[in-house]
Amino acid sequence: MSAAAVERSHDRPQIAEANRIMERLPGYRVEIIGDQIMVSPPADGPHGVTLTDLMVPFLAAGLDDGDSNVLQGIGLWLPTGREDYAIPDLSLVDADFQDHHIENNCYDPVCFRMVLEVTSSNFRTDLRTKTGAYAEAKIPVYVIVDRKHQRLHVLTEPTGSEYASHRVHAPGETAALPDSLGAKVTLDVEQIIRAGQKQDG
After folding, report:
1. What is the DSSP letter of 81?
2. Who's near 74: CB < 8 A, 6+ residues apart?
3. What's the confidence (pLDDT) of residue 7?
4. What average pLDDT does range 93-122 have in this prediction?
């Protein structure tokens, strides 16, 4: 998702301000990362197509049946600030994730096996800001579909505010995700990138 920083109102907590923005801008995604409120406009159609296509290999691998769930737009509580949270485009969580509710419809990072973002206009947020935040939250696997540069990133082994392993895949390649997800999942990079491209006309 694309994002732009929004200045914080000094007379109310950030979460209250974020929720006020969400009420004022239905359909927008509002997150707090690094003590900044980030507001993302509704995604375009190819973004949605990409997410739908991406769910298929996870569902086919049985990762939404039994001890895990594949979910879009579930809140992830972050350790990067007192009120920080993100809403990844797609997440793989333990089946008991509801036992890990913290607040504001967000859940403890401990129940997340993977998060995935599909970039929009402000791709730097997904490639940089969220990379550090997700690493600090110790999310084991972070996948980024970089539509601007037509690449798929697979980040693993979170250490501090970065990932020790960062593999970049181009169209024509396949990306095998770690077995730690609970099943074997391989992504066809060309198919994913093609789904995310806007049609001319």
Report:
1. S
2. 87, 88, 91, 93, 97, 107
3. 42
4. 95
- Integer CA distances (angstroms), 164 to 48, 66, 119, 122, in order: 30, 30, 22, 24
Structure tokens at 90: 């797609």
3-state helix, strand, coil in the chain (%, to 5): 30, 35, 35
Q: What is the rounded distance in angstroms from the CA atom of residue 155 to the CA atom of residue 143?
A: 6
Which amino acid makes up residue 31? E
Neighbours of 163 (CB within 10 A): 22
Q: Once rounded to an integer, what is the mean pLDDT over residues 27-36?
A: 93
Q: What is the per-residue pLDDT across 149-178, written as a single tens digit (0 to 9) for each?
A: 999 999 999 999 999 999 999 999 999 999
In whole angstroms, give the CA distance from residue 8 to residue 6: 6
